[in-house]
Design goal:
Helix 2 packs parallel to helix 7. The longest helix has 22 residues. By secondary structure, this protein is an alpha/beta fold. Strands 1, 2, 8, 9, 10, 11, 17 and 18 form an 8-stranded mixed β-sheet that branches. An 8-stranded mixed β-sheet has the order 5-6-4-13-14-15-12-16, sandwiched between helices. The protein folds into 3 domains: 173 residues, D-Amino Acid Oxidase, subunit A, domain 2 (D-Amino Acid Oxidase, Chain A, domain 2, 2-Layer Sandwich), CATH 3.30.9.10; 212 residues, FAD/NAD(P)-binding domain, CATH 3.50.50.60; 33 residues. Strand 9 and strand 10 form a beta hairpin.
Length: 479
């Protein structure tokens, strides 16, 4: 859904200014009274001893704590986080929950063709287990197995969707290729010229409710949480690990690092991922007239098939969420409040939203925000251990962490326990992605790639020499 030649809306359009006039710069998911995040867990100070210390209270860390208690209900599990509830990617995403653990079938087949049938099956089994756990733990995350519609707005994208449809049918997915009128009958936009409807293996949920529910359930089960407790160093100590931060020291038998896009405490994590900032808009609740104008009665997740792509969905209270396109990497990979907003990107996204859905002219944007995506050079998770399985990790979900983070938590716990499982035998787990190069090469390479991706979209999808080189090396950067 890149803006088509001749589109009437620009980032400087007065309609964009009006739409954004009252927007607040906070993530919508965690800015609602019905999402009870509590007052947050008190910071930890002093000296402590636990069986398992989890660093990072996002989805990976919270799922890891729950799965660890499933293994051993008497285990002393402590989860610490440098910030507050849902303040990282777990509270800032679009709420798409996909079964894929390889960032889609195309990426998985390209990298692990011999084991992709296993990866695909494990992904579907994992999604079923995640949904079952929500029920078991009493977490109302508004899970809805609505499927996903991928749209085309150019001839080359229609051709790409036809190829993708054959690939997905080949692995057993329930998909339907749609022409322009059939696509617009699902969701109405004058820009849509085709689509691919995927009915299985993907749905939507409410990430704010998921964060709140996992936290509440963890405390009820005897786990422990500490917010605003940054840690800065870890070292081997006796038969375990000592983790230190300002005013706090924790002796743990084992440590699981779930820091994802934020600076890792070990060098392998810092080389494996870079933080890319994705930006999102959410409208005010849509009235019946606007909803009828959109169609969208199936409430499917929505994405487009450009290289610089958008994603969109309806929230449980009938707002339209719109994000993606302008993935931003800043020199040195900073994270935190200073890089979470970009007025230029917010205006661009709003203009593109109005181009795609002109029937929403006059609708106000209520929330804008940015969030960090942990990106690896192979577009999907990486896990490992150090120090004789005293420290483990899983990071790098590259935008599909809402679902894949539970799988990553299970992998990291398997590795820490020294368990040889079907998960740990995967090539996905046993091999690491090519590390990102140091600065300034990292910034230069990502900047060049972003420009090449935008150029490919302008040239009917034709990938230039730089992108073809990265493809041949199995490397890349995704919007």
């Amino acid at each position: 859904m890149s803006r088509r030649p001749g589109s009437s809306t620009s980032p400087d359009d007065a309609r964009v200014t009006r739409a954004l006039a009252d927007a607040v710069g906070r993530p919508f998911w965690t800015d609602r009274p019905e999402v009870d995040l509590g007052a947050g867990a008190a910071p930890l100070r002093g000296q402590h001893s636990v069986d398992l210390l989890v660093v990072g209270a996002g989805f990976t860390g919270l799922w890891a704590a729950h799965l660890a208690l499933d293994d051993d209900p008497g285990r002393q599990v402590l989860v610490v986080d440098a910030s507050g509830p849902g303040d990282g990617a777990s509270g800032r995403n679009g709420g798409f929950c996909d079964a894929s653990i390889t960032h889609g079938a195309a990426n998985g087949l390209a990298r692990w063709p011999g084991e992709y049938s296993t990866l695909h099956r494990l992904g579907l089994e994992h999604l079923d287990a995640l949904v079952a756990d929500l029920d078991r733990l009493g977490v109302d995350a508004a899970w809805s197995p609505v499927g996903e519609l991928t749209t085309a707005s150019a001839d080359w994208q229609v051709r790409d969707l036809a190829e993708l449809a054959e690939l997905l049918r080949g692995v057993g997915d329930d998909v339907e290729l749609l022409d322009g009128p059939a696509t617009r009958a699902v969701v109405d936009s004058p820009t849509f010229t085709g689509g691919l409807l995927r009915r299985t293996g993907v749905g939507t949920l409410d990430p704010g409710r998921l964060v709140a529910g996992l936290r509440r359930s963890l405390l009820e089960r005897g786990g422990h949480l500490a917010d605003h407790t940054p840690v800065s160093a870890l070292r081997r100590h006796g038969t375990g690990v000592r983790v230190d931060g300002p005013g706090v020291s924790v002796q743990a038998r084992q440590v699981l690092l779930a820091t994802n896009a934020f600076r890792g405490l070990l060098a392998p994590l810092r080389r494996a991922v870079v933080p890319v900032y994705d930006h999102v808009l959410v409208t005010e609740p849509l009235d019946r007239g606007h909803l009828d104008a959109l169609g969208w009665s199936g409430r499917q997740g929505l994405a487009d098939s450009a290289n610089q792509f958008h994603y969109s969905r309806l929230t449980p209270d009938d707002r339209l969420l719109w994000g993606g396109y302008d993935a931003i990497y800043r020199y040195g990979g900073p994270t935190g409040p200073s890089v979470e907003r970009s007025e230029a990107t917010e205006r661009l996204l709003c203009a593109q939203l109005l181009d795609t859905f002109p029937q929403l002219d006059g609708v106000r944007i209520s929330h804008t925000w940015g969030g960090p995506i942990a990106t690896t050079t192979r577009f999907c998770l990486t896990a490992g251990t150090r120090w004789n399985d005293r420290v483990g990790w899983c990071v790098g979900y590259t935008g599909l962490g809402v679902g894949a983070s539970r799988f990553g938590a299970a992998v990291a716990l398997d590795l820490l326990a020294g368990r040889r499982t079907e998960r740990t035998e995967l090539g996905l787990v046993r091999t690491a992605p090519v590390p990102w190069p140091p600065e300034p090469i990292r910034w230069a390479g990502i900047t060049l790639t972003r420009r090449a991706i935008a150029r490919a979209d302008r040239r009917q999808g034709r990938r230039g020499p730089w992108l073809r080189l990265l493809d041949s090396l199995g490397l890349g950067f995704d919007s």
